Amino acid sequence: MQSSKAVIMALFSEDQTQETNRRGRIEIICGSMFSGKTEELIRRLKRAKFAKQKVEIFKPTVDSRYSQCDVVSHDKNYINSTPVDSSSSILLLASDVDVVGIDEAQFFDLGIVDVCNELANMGIRVIVAGLDMDFKGTPFGPIPHLCAIADEVSKVHAICVKCGQLALYSHRTVNCNKQVLLGETERYEPLCRKCYLKALKQQNTLKEA
Ligand SMILES: Nc1ncnc2c1ncn2[C@@H]1O[C@H](COP(=O)(O)OP(=O)(O)O)[C@@H](O)[C@H]1O
Ligand SMILES: Cc1cn([C@H]2C[C@H](O)[C@@H](COP(=O)(O)O)O2)c(=O)[nH]c1=O
Ligand SMILES: [Zn+2]
């Protein structure tokens, strides 16, 4: 019992000072698709709201999958947000708040790094969720840079749909080479390293045939 409690506390930050004191910091929640990034972002933001903190939530306009305005998880858990075209809009809209939440941050420009630093320097708690790797297993947009400047990074994992191990890759199951391709289970599946390499091999064999 004691050890499982310790594991939960290591995974999910429950430092109450974050919810009661106004203290600038940057928290990153990253991982593959279906790893629970959005659920964890919503959980932290709802707790901040319970603590009567002023919270503003942003997402890139490009992410219109479930809703134009809300941040929505795969389990349809949601929280209201403001869609923005570029990272600079976040600075303009978030100067007078305690907490800023940002979802799907992989789709933002690199300017998001300075924006997050500026907000944190102003005393704002900044919580960012995003994909750390694209479907090729390449670091995605500004997320690696954000991890570098963060106070805390939580890497979360989905379950590999082939073997049940922890998944760290988002395997694209349709034929498209563009980095940005919105989708859900009809286009992507979370896989562990072994199953991801196997799937890539099979795809290459099919292409060569
Ligand atoms: N293979 C999977 N592994 C883990 N969770 C999955 C899987 N497929 C669907 N889910 C669902 O996705 C939810 C997480 O959704 P979400 O927080 O939106 O993930 P993310 O933002 O990382 O894509 C889980 O709570 C679970 O119900
Ligand atoms: C891997 C990968 C994903 N995408 C898209 C697919 C989804 O619309 C989002 C990720 O959403 P989630 O909340 O993390 O499930 O990103 C993409 O455009 N390119 C990729 O390589
Ligand atoms: Zn696997």
From TrEMBL:
Binding positions for substrate per the UniProt entry: 180-183, 188
Lineage, highest ranks first: Bacteria, Pseudomonadati, Bacteroidota, Bacteroidia, Bacteroidales
Residues involved in ATP binding: 31-38, 103-106
Enzyme active site: 104 (proton acceptor)
GO function terms (MF aspect): ATP binding; thymidine kinase activity; zinc ion binding
HAMAP family to which the protein is assigned, alphabetical: Thymidine_kinase
Binding, Zn(2+): 160, 163, 192, 195
Quaternary structure and partners: Homotetramer.
Species in which this protein is naturally found: Bacteroides coprosuis DSM 18011
Family, similarity comment: Belongs to the thymidine kinase family.
Reactions the enzyme catalyzes: thymidine + ATP = dTMP + ADP + H(+)
GO cellular component terms, semicolon-separated: cytosol
Record protein name field: Thymidine kinase
